[in-house]
Amino acid sequence: MEIVVCVKQVPDTTEVKIDPVTNTLIRQGVPSIVNPFDKNAVEAALVLKEKHGGKVTVLSMGPPQAKDALKECLAMGADAAILVSDRAFGGADTLATSYTLAAAIRKLGAVDLILCGKQAIDGDTAQVGPEIAEHLGIAQVTYVAKIDIDGAAARLEREHEDGYEVIEAGLPVLVTVVKSANEPRYPTVKGTMRANRAEIPVWTVADLDTDPARLGLKGSPTQVRKIFTPKQRTQGVLIAKDTAREAVAELIAKLSAAKIV
Amino acid sequence: MQFELTEEQKMMQKMVREFAAKEVAPGSAARDEEEKFDRSLYDALGELGVTGICFPEQYGGAGADTLSYILAIEELSRVDSGLGIALSASVSLGGWPIYAYGSEEQKKKYLAPLAEGRTLGAFGLTEPNAGTDAAAQQTVAVLQGDHYVLNGSKIFITNGGEAETYVILAMTDKAKGARGISAFILEKGMPGFTFGKKEHKLGIRSSQTMELVFQDVAVPAANLLGKEGDGFKIAMTTLDGGRIGVAAQALGIAQAALDHAAKYAKERVQFGKPIAANQAVAFTLADMATQIDAARLLTYRAAYCKDKGLPYSKEAAMAKLYASDAAMAIAVDAVQVYGGYGYSREYPVERLMRDAKITQIYEGTNQVQRMVISAAILR
Question: In angstroms, rounded to a whole number, what is the distance separating the alpha carbons of residues B264 and B334?
Answer without folding.
Answer: 9
